[in-house]
Amino acid sequence: MLETLFPNGIAQYAIGGALVGLGVVIIYVGTGIIAGASTFLESTWSYVSDLDRFQRRKYVASRDWRVVFTLGIVLGAAAYTAATGDFSYSTRVEPWRLVVGGFLVGVGTRLGKGCTSGHGVCGVGSLSQTSLVNVATFLLVAIGTAQLVFAMGVRP
């Protein structure tokens, strides 16, 4: 069964999960901040927009570390790609579907008041009830969506 779920082995997932967990612990112990990327856009807009929505104290106060955190995610992926030499990327998903999916994820992130990195990694780790409910909702909706798409004839 493991070969079916993890055709390339489980080690890379275990190492990746351990590194994510370690990163979250380091951020929390070092700064007292619960890591998460869902408010990156609003906090970044606070640099350039005078609209009250973007000038809220929580956005202005957190914008610097959120920019660094998000850049770290992107640069970490770039460093891994450069280190492994694997620059290939392929998908059979049409670009419009990727855009619609990204939009729906963004809407869900705002409705759930956080993303999977905040709720799934940090919130569940701190036993937050809100995060536990959100993660259960993420999983149930994902499973339901996968079943619906499969029933419609879409195969990976």
Outline the structure in words.
Helices cover 70% and strands 0% of the residues. With 156 residues, it is mostly helical. It has a domain at 92-156. The two termini are 18 Å apart. The mean pLDDT is 86. Keywords: Cell inner membrane, Cell membrane, Membrane, Transmembrane, Transmembrane helix, Transport. The chain crosses the membrane at residues 12-37, 65-83, 135-154. It is found in: Cell inner membrane. This is YeeE/YedE family protein.
**Using only CA atoms, what is the Rg?**
18 Å
Shape: globular
Helix content: 55-70%
Tell me the fraction of residues in β-strands, as a range: under 5%
Report the end-to-end length measured between terminal Cα atoms: 18 Å
Number of distinct beta strands? 0
Structural class: mainly alpha
Number of helical segments?
Answer: 7
Could you report the average pLDDT, rounded to the nearest whole number?
Answer: 86
Largest sheet: none
Q: Indicate the low-confidence ranges by residue numbers.
A: none
Order of helices and strands: HHHHHHH
What kind of assembly state do the chains in view correspond to? Answer: single chain
Core attributes:
70% helix, 156 residues, transmembrane helix, cell inner membrane, mainly alpha, transport
Give the topology:
Elements: H1 2-5, H2 11-31, H3 40-45, H4 57-84, H5 95-111, H6 116-125, H7 129-151
Briefly characterize the structure.
The chain crosses the membrane at residues 12-37, 65-83, 135-154. The protein is mainly α and 156 residues long.
